[in-house]
UniProtKB/TrEMBL annotation:
GO cellular component, one term: acetolactate synthase complex
One biological process term in Gene Ontology: isoleucine biosynthetic process
Family: Belongs to the TPP enzyme family.
Entry GO MF terms: acetolactate synthase activity; flavin adenine dinucleotide binding; magnesium ion binding; thiamine pyrophosphate binding
Upper classification of the organism: Eukaryota, Metazoa, Ecdysozoa, Arthropoda, Hexapoda
PROSITE patterns: TPP_ENZYMES (PS00187)
Keywords, sorted A to Z: Thiamine pyrophosphate
Name of the protein in question: 2-hydroxyacyl-CoA lyase 2
């Protein structure tokens, strides 16, 4: 508590171990603590909060904010390599790590202090000892908001036409709707950081790096949440690993709009080979079926989109359609989207 009390610009980094700590994190943010989340922890503090840095870990404008902080509290996060530039992202010192698992101590970053215990109890105790607005400074808040706006603008530019797709889903999906995404280019670029985060566990994804989990996870999520609409985000390559699960989606009448991003290959591998292997491309092209025809053969309602101008209308119709549906996005027609893997350490 003394470290937090003395800090003028404290940073709280929350991960999946803090998913149940929404109220405590909100109170700490209201007191003036700036909050960064892992991609899994997004929504613990809503994006709309003025002290949320969201998951813009590797954005230059947000890194500039981190450099001005004078304390890092890490709560329930492994500080994964893909969110810390292979563990070279400078984190403010002193660094205090809160984790219920003693084995987490100093695993990826050496902590100045390790506190073993439940994140909820510890963060609640800290929040109770700070008064609302205790560490709030108008100029600092303005810098935080500006940094986040710059990071989002850069991500929208990187996403290109697909930022409009992100916005179309956000506009059509109810506030309690769920996004379930596969490991795919779209999921990694705009699905993970640009798509809204209102509350925890509304942006669901595999914590492993393997593709193919998107549709099975979307089906499971929809069955577990029958009153909530699910948007499943998959690539053509990942979907190919479980194409037959379209029959499960149809048979169970799962309330899913499956969004198939079809670029005719393994887009992540193309980006990696462009960046790290002088553009030499091998084993990246895929023969893909006519996904709408496959869906219709399963008895599913289906749409195909070949122009960004169609995003808003088609997604509104598909998401409001009761029961399972499929939207195929022809990425070769809409335009390119490149992702070369997570940021690497600087040499």
């Amino acid at each position: 508590y003394q470290r937090l009390k003395q800090a003028k610009r404290p940073l709280l980094w929350v991960g999946g171990g803090a998913l149940a700590c929404r109220e405590a994190v909100q109170r700490l943010a209201d007191a003036g603590v700036v909050v960064m989340s892992s991609t899994h922890g997004r929504g613990i503090l809503p994006d709309s909060h003025p002290r949320s840095l969201r998951a813009f870990h590797n954005s230059p404008s947000v890194e500039a904010i981190l450099k001005q902080c004078d304390l890092t509290l890490v709560a329930g996060s492994r500080l994964r390599s893909n969110e810390t530039r292979t563990w070279t992202l400078p984190l403010p010192r002193p660094l205090v790590q809160i984790d219920i698992d003693p084995a987490a101590a100093n695993r990826n970053y050496v902590a100045d202090e390790q506190v073993n215990g439940d994140c909820g109890a510890l963060l609640s105790a800290l929040a109770a000892r700070l008064t609302p607005g205790e560490k709030v400074h108008a100029e600092w808040d303005a810098e935080i908001v500006q940094a986040v706006q710059q990071a989002e603008t850069a991500l929208r530019q990187q996403s290109g036409e697909y930022a409009k797709l992100n916005d179309a889903i956000a506009a059509a999906l109810p506030a309690d709707g769920l996004l379930v995404r596969d490991i795919t280019v779209s999921g990694s670029v705009w699905g993970s950081r640009l798509f809204r985060a209102i509350s925890p566990l509304c942006n669901i994804h595999s914590l492993a790096g393997a593709i193919g989990m998107g549709l099975p996870m979307a089906i499971g999520t929809a069955i577990a949440n029958p009153q909530r609409k699910v948007v499943g985000l998959v690539g053509d390559g990942g979907l190919a690993l479980g194409l037959g699960e379209l029959a499960t989606m149809a048979q169970e009448q799962a309330n899913i709009t499956l969004l198939i991003m079809n670029d005719g290959g393994y887009g992540v591998m193309r980006g990696i080979q462009d960046k790290y292997f002088a553009g030499r491309q091998y084993y990246n092209d895929l023969h893909t079926p006519a996904f709408c025809q496959v869906a219709e053969a399963m008895g599913l309602k289906a749409w195909k989109v070949s122009d960004a101008a169609q995003f808003s209308g088609v997604l509104a119709e598909a998401i409001n359609y009761p029961g399972p549906s499929v939207v195929e996005v022809d990425m070769k027609s809409v335009g390119p989207l490149t992702f070369a893997g997570p940021p690497q350490k600087l040499y």
